[in-house]
C-alpha cells in the first residue's frame, strides 16, 4: 500500500494537477474519492480543518492541497519528505 494518500474528486483540476505532479516523480498514491459522499467530506474537513480537495497525506504528514504540494516541490522539500517516508515504509 502506498504511503501517499490523496482525498479528491474526479473532476477537480487541482486534484488532477496534484496527481500529475506525483506521477511525474514516479510516486504511487492511494486515491480516495469523496465525490458525492457528504459524510466523508465532513469527516475530512474535521480532520484537516479544510473543506477543499485535494487533501494530501504523505505518511502521517498532512501536506495540504495542491498549492502546498507544489510549494514543497518548488522549495526542494517534497523529494526529501517522500524519501523519508519511503525509508519508514
What's this model, at a glance?
The chain has helices at residues 13-24, 38-48, 66-74, 78-88; strands spanning 4-8, 30-33, 55-58, 61-64. The chain is α+β, with helices and mostly antiparallel strands and 89 residues long.
Description:
This protein has 89 residues and is α+β, with helices and mostly antiparallel strands. It has 4 helices and 4 strands; from the N terminus they run βαβαββαα. The protein has helices spanning 13-24, 38-48, 66-74, 78-88, and strands at residues 4-8, 30-33, 55-58, 61-64. A 4-stranded mixed beta sheet has the order 2-1-3-4. Helix 1 (13-24) runs parallel beside helix 3 (66-74). The longest helix is centred in the first third of the chain and has 12 residues, at 13-24. It is globular, with a radius of gyration of 12 Å.
Layout of helices and strands:
Elements: E1 4-8, H1 13-24, E2 30-33, H2 38-48, E3 55-58, E4 61-64, H3 66-74, H4 78-88
Parallel strand pairs: 1-2
Antiparallel strand pairs: 1-3, 3-4
Amount of beta strand? 15-25%
**Treating each run of at least 4 consecutive H or I residues as one helix, how many helices?**
4
The level of helicity is 40-55%
Instruction: Extract low-pLDDT stretches.
Output: none
Distance between the termini: 9 Å
What's the shape? Answer: globular
The helix/strand class is alpha+beta
Please give the largest β-sheet: 4 strands, mixed
Mean pLDDT: 95
**Tally of DSSP β-strands:** 4
Spatial strand arrangement across the major sheet: 2-1-3-4
The helix-strand sequence is EHEHEEHH
| Rg of Cα set | 12 Å
Domain Glutaredoxin: 4-63
Pfam families: Glutaredoxin
Keywords: Cytoplasm, Disulfide bond, Electron transport, Redox-active center, Transport
Protein name: Glutaredoxin
Amino acid at each position: 500500500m502506498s504511503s501517499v494518500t490523496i482525498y479528491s474528486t474526479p473532476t477537480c483540476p487541482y486534484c488532477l494537477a496534484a496527481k500529475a505532479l506525483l506521477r511525474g516523480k514516479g510516486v504511487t498514491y492511494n486515491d480516495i474519492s469523496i465525490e458525492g459522499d457528504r459524510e466523508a467530506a465532513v469527516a475530512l474537513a474535521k480532520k484537516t480543518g479544510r473543506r477543499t480537495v485535494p487533501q494530501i497525506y504523505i505518511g502521517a504528514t498532512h501536506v495540504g492541497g495542491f498549492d502546498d504540494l507544489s510549494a514543497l516541490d518548488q522549495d526542494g522539500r517534497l523529494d526529501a519528505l517522500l524519501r523519508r517516508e519511503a525509508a519508514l515504509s
